[in-house]
User: Fold these one by one.
Assistant:
Number 1:
Amino acid sequence: MGDVLAGFHAVWEFESDSVLIRYERGIRTPKLFQALGERRIPLSAVEGVTLTPGRRGTVALRLRPRPGADPLMDAAAGQLSEACDPYRLVLPAERSTLAEYYADELKQLVPDGGPEPAERYLVAAPEAPLQFKAYDGKAAFDGTSVQFRWSWTGASSAKWKAGDQSFAVADLSGVEWRSPEAFEGHLRLLPRAASSAEAVHPDQDPAAVVFGLGYGPVHESLPFAAAVLAAVRTRGPVPVTPAPARRDPADIAERIRHLGELHQAGLVTDEEFSSKKAELLAEL
């Protein structure tokens, strides 16, 4: 097709086998769109096209992605609001005839594959390295492993006892993302060796970070979850991870101080205090 259709917050460029979506960076553009920048959606990743009336004199053209074709939508699991739907282009109602034309053109190009899940991800995942700040720690992903570094102001005693965590992609089976805009939002890593025991609350689970007001926003935590999910699904041999860099002595001192407070409060035993303190000192 080779045509371009501009709407609110995004521009769609139509090709014979894909739609290139470029998101605007205006102050009114959803932050998720700004974080995504642009995305190429192969038509093989689309199972349908709709055109519906929008709010306040608008129409909405939307691509319906196939299950399993886009790691971002898999990670979101239906939790995104309409305003943050990256497959939805909103246009003024006076452009409805033009939108209808493109909807009909797309319907002719979309493969008749039905709602069958895609065998592999067809839409590129956000690129690593990625990181974001959760309420109880910092999460980082370098493409091969995920690291959780606990915050002394927010992490539970269970997480402090467990220490900072590192998870190789090869040891994971998936990711559980719960929107920070909902109650008990969190990001949990799912191990390959699934336990039959009852799931631990994210606040107590060393394989999870919890969100909160201003922590783990959608535009940071969702692309992170999608990148990890894509790496898990397409994992190959895991490269040797380089030795971690030396920690800031001031940071180590602060962690030992907080550990001492937990010890005095009776939340950490003498043995746990001595062991963890020695572990932190070894990082200097």
Number 2:
Amino acid sequence: MLSRLTRPQALAVCALPVVGLLATTVFAPLPFSVAQPGSTANVLGEHRGTPVITISGAPTRRTEGQLRMTTIVATGPDAHVSLGDVLGNWFDSERAVMPRDAVYPSGDDVKEIEEHNKEQMEESQDAATTAALDHLGLSEADVDVKLRLADIGGPSAGLLFALGIIDKLEGDGSGGDLTGGRIIAGTGTISTGGKVGAVGGVPLKTQAARRDGATVFLVPKAECSDAQAELPKGLRLIPVTTLEGAVDSLRALETGKGEVPSC
């Protein structure tokens, strides 16, 4: 025979499953990744002791300034991200909570993702080389370009690779540097035809860029609003849609002649 519970006792008993459910929800894994600003690398210089851009078959020039590609660092695809982690990082301007599928291909394990990112980087390097040499009117049959960026994957350095090749071969076309001696950072995919594409994670990349000394950031035009959302003080945004447009904007910025677009 069951004894009858008082109202407070009944509420206490009923609350136990609710507390248990909340605890389970807070600590259960969720399909999110927590990202933060990652490293940057100057494509005009060396990365881990190795030149990022090596060119043979055509005379190259000594460059001043920097062109820094940017990255983000995210929790791994197999990481345990709970509701507590999501809530704890949601309002942190130096962190971003992103759907895991937006960071990693859905259903892939760590090894498959690493291989996928490596393939994307290689494709990006090939596209950047083609776009840059076409822009300069040079043939890939005569000019050999090697791009090396160890331990960094994905396609988002394409624009900076292409600009780096152009700066090493031609500069601004008038004897000066495409960078104007500045530290310029940016992000964006590149097609063989020179079209710049969106990449994601831009607010975190602008923070990485400013942390490492950049004063100008080249951003795919489609991601202007994202870049403005958490724009660090002292960093100027220049929207781009094509490689040619990016080159024109940098020349205008250096010479003070012509229009430099803004977000």
